[in-house]
Amino acid sequence: MGTYFTSSGFSSCEVGGFVAAALLHDLRVNNFTFTNFPEVNVAWDDDNFHITLKVQGASSSTFSFDYKTVIAEVKRFRDKKEVSAQVFDVIQKHAAELEGEVSKT
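Now predict its structure.
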């Protein structure tokens, strides 16, 4: 179940949504070497959102975005726009890392 951040006006599901949208774009362009689609785990603290990608028993390292970045990316997600290039690069790097981890299993 998602958590709604009332003061910011978005949910944790939308954070996972913009990450998943970036992963879909990466899949269309580069494909993945693993089977299935990565699970997007979202956690947070007072300053950042922390994301971990998982598939087939393997995980990427956790990466983080600050609230300002997340608010901007959720707006892009709601407007049906792709994630920003800077955020995409971070997500794509961790998707590639996940591919490496899956290859070890």
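The mean pLDDT is 94.
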